[in-house]
Design a protein that fits this description.
6-stranded parallel beta sheet; 3-stranded parallel beta sheet; Rossmann fold; single chain
């Protein structure tokens, strides 16, 4: 268990530090449900295999992520963390991590401007040092350094935003360059590699690699069997209906539910919805996946029809 070592530690932005005790209780529960990470701690903590690693993490700041963060620290790494989504943070988890002395920048419901500010801050170490590894989910931390480095040489790459998020991102990059014209390239050059957790980020990485723009090695965690065949399938099967019910408080039985895509995430989602007696329709462009859905008894339709 990580405990507070410095009561003056303030290198964090969270909703409420008083939630730390609640977060610590849930972390203790999660540790019993995550035997893989706990076994890694037990086996490798003394060896400190991650000593010297300075990890910037951009991943949903949840209780389960807190267990990961504390495992990385137990193995010798230094960590700075932000959420990869403005809505996914569990504020009590962020509080517990902050109380344990880890710099964390995550608030449930943060604005897009705050989000990109926090993504910058996880690359800024208190002692002036630099990140050498990125743990990314969705590719935003990786994107930030690469796009910012390009903008150092040519501001036109951040001149024409096409969405609200791009407006906030481009503005953040331009403001940072006013303060330090080489902020991005300096940090990019220090990165040994990145691990990417999800499909969106993996697609970005493959595209960057194809174009010769990826500046460091990347490990595709998303397509590992333990991720795609377990988290994507069984994790989404658990979390989908839980999230829908928490957000809407509606009965699912009798509803027509459309699942867009029948990959591992779609399979788990369709199972969960059918288990609650929804009529489940599936849209899918891959003929094999579409046939799988049909053979499972789902109605396969086009998105236009749905």
């Amino acid at each position: 268990m990580n405990t507070v070592t410095d009561l003056t530690f303030k290198d964090y932005v969270i909703a409420d530090i008083s939630l730390a005790a609640f977060g610590r209780k849930e972390i203790a529960i999660a540790e019993t449900e995550m035997p893989g990470l706990m076994a890694i701690r037990e086996e490798f903590a003394l060896a400190q295999p991650l000593k010297g690693a300075r990890i910037t993490g951009s991943l949903h700041m949840t209780i389960q992520t807190a267990v990961l963060i504390e495992t990385l620290k137990d193995l010798g790494a230094e960590v700075r963390w932000a959420s990869c989504n403005i809505y996914s943070t569990q504020d009590h988890a962020a509080a517990a991590i902050a109380a344990g002395g880890t710099p964390v920048f995550a608030i449930k419901g943060e604005t897009l401007t705050e989000y990109w500010d926090y993504t910058h801050r996880i690359f800024e170490w208190a002692d002036g040092g630099y990140t050498n590894m990125i743990l990314d989910d969705g590719g935003d931390a990786t994107l930030l350094l690469h796009l910012g480095t390009r903008a150092e040489k040519d501001l036109s790459v951040v001149a024409n935003p096409t969405s609200e998020e791009e407006i906030c991102l481009f503005d953040a990059i331009k403001e940072k360059l006013k303060v330090d014209p080489t902020w991005y390239s300096t940090r990019l050059s220090k990165i040994i590699g990145v691990t990417e957790e999800t499909t969106t980020g993996v697609h970005r990485l493959y595209q960057m690699h194809k174009e010769g723009k990826l500046a460091f090695p990347a490990i595709n965690v998303n397509d590992s069997v333990t991720k795609s065949k377990f988290d994507n399938l069984y994790g989404c099967r658990e979390s989908l209906v839980d999230a829908v019910k928490r957000a809407t408080d509606v009965m699912i039985a009798g509803k027509v539910a459309v699942v867009a895509g029948y990959g591992d995430v779609g399979k788990g989602s369709a199972q969960a919805l059918r288990a609650l007696s929804a009529q489940v329709w599936v849209t899918e462009i891959d003929p094999i996946c579409a046939l799988q859905a049909a053979m499972e008894g789902y109605r396969v339709v086009t998105m236009d029809y749905a």
